[in-house]
């Protein structure tokens, strides 16, 4: 599954969803995690709140989880409507540490929230996300 991390340096989860200058995107499986991309967001000087959220949603549209330190209520609602689960972690949490914890959860018995996310992802893969 693809997982995004709100970051300003690609190393630590240290950004609020609405102010994050980039997302580190990893592919995470039971066997490990690998960095796929650092998706930098364009600087928009006069973007309103909805525009900021839209831009960030587009950047993580293919992700299943988004790790961040904070997210506003309206952004959280829009993220979850896109079938992306926001996961709050402490400021400065190392991305690699979060990836490692996620791999360990996948290898063992995933917590209920993660099991639900995985089930949804498997159903979409089985039936095709475009309704075929």
Automatic annotation (TrEMBL):
<feature type="domain" description="Dinitrogenase iron-molybdenum cofactor biosynthesis">
    <location>
        <begin position="9"/>
        <end position="103"/>
    </location>
</feature>
<dbReference type="Pfam" id="PF02579">
    <property type="entry name" value="Nitro_FeMo-Co"/>
</dbReference>
<dbReference type="InterPro" id="IPR036105">
    <property type="entry name" value="DiNase_FeMo-co_biosyn_sf"/>
</dbReference>
<comment type="similarity">
    <text>Belongs to the NifX/NifY family.</text>
</comment>
<dbReference type="InterPro" id="IPR034169">
    <property type="entry name" value="NifX-like"/>
</dbReference>
<keyword id="KW-0535">Nitrogen fixation</keyword>
<protein>
    <submittedName>
        <fullName>Nitrogen fixation protein NifX</fullName>
    </submittedName>
</protein>
<dbReference type="InterPro" id="IPR051840">
    <property type="entry name" value="NifX/NifY_domain"/>
</dbReference>
<dbReference type="InterPro" id="IPR003731">
    <property type="entry name" value="Di-Nase_FeMo-co_biosynth"/>
</dbReference>
